[in-house]
């Protein structure tokens, strides 16, 4: 074989190896690309191009952070610089708006570029958060059973004693104190009963399409005693789509928010409950006038319980601006789908 034939054979072999390499990276089911130190895409597979909504040829030579994520600068936490400096492998998770992407980067021997694999972790993280919330609620149910066992008997004794003493002839000042004792005992019993309801109904009720506004109406009806001597303002959006959820879980989540708002609103204060829609999300907003001194411990317990329940439903609990100078507003955000 002469020199020309040898060169041709070598070129043919290189073309074959290149084709095999391209076929291999195109077979990878995740976005994969060779990224240079200046974040420019040198090579990319088909899945990478599909994620960017462009052809492979169109994205080569472009910045990776612009092509994939529409950013104007490198992503915070990107492992590219680290891996090119160390010459090994680095893994990092990019927390982007509404997305979580894990990047695995392998440096080339000359450290001028790295092979980067992108895996969307959004759904996995959401599943982990829901599983974690379910685990916490399960533990909470066990705790509630113990609390009920230890507290129900003394609470009943306190309540019965206070009621018996109220029937006796006493000064008005003493009767007011006894009335406050009885109300506090009733409130403690309702907290224990609420925790037990969560433990008993976990997984008992099937998931179904529910009318969110109707469920909120039912929750407010159940919260009637809590809203006594408060002004309740209700604003319900017309024709909201149904939500895939357990009605008891939504009811419990709303009840905890309303209980906290009623406590903070104070006697004669306003509690505002609103249902609305924002894009693909359905919203339940509970706002209070904040006339009374806030019960921080009770409020945080109610918020924590409501947040866990909301996360189980695939949504989230967030703070929003109150319409009142001293007030506080919380919003449940639930996905319509």
Protein described:
Helix 6 runs antiparallel to helix 7, helix 8 packs across helix 9 and helix 9 (247-265) runs antiparallel to helix 10. The chain has 10 helices and 12 strands. The chain is an alpha+beta fold. The protein starts with a helix and ends with a strand. It is 51% helix and 23% strand. The mean pLDDT is 81. A 5-stranded antiparallel beta sheet has the order 2-1-5-4-3, with helices on both faces. The chain has a 5-stranded mixed beta sheet with strand order 7-9-10-12-11. The chain has 3 domains: 3-120, Beta-Lactamase (2-Layer Sandwich); 129-204; 205-337, Heat Shock Protein 90 (2-Layer Sandwich), CATH 3.30.565.10.
In short:
This protein is α+β, with helices and mostly antiparallel strands and 337 residues long. It has ten helices and twelve strands.
Quick tags:
337 residues, alpha+beta, Beta-Lactamase, 3 domains, 5-stranded antiparallel sheet, 5-stranded mixed sheet, 23% strand
What topology does this entry show?
Layout: H1 3-27, E1 32-36, E2 41-44, H2 46-52, H3 56-59, H4 64-69, H5 80-86, E3 89-96, E4 99-107, E5 113-120, H6 122-166, H7 172-201, E6 208-210, H8 212-222, E7 231-236, E8 243-245, H9 247-265, E9 270-278, E10 281-288, H10 296-312, E11 316-320, E12 328-335
Parallel strand pairs: 7-9
Antiparallel strand pairs: 1-2, 1-5, 3-4, 4-5, 6-8, 9-10, 10-12, 11-12
Helix pairs in contact: 6-7, 6-10, 8-9, 9-10
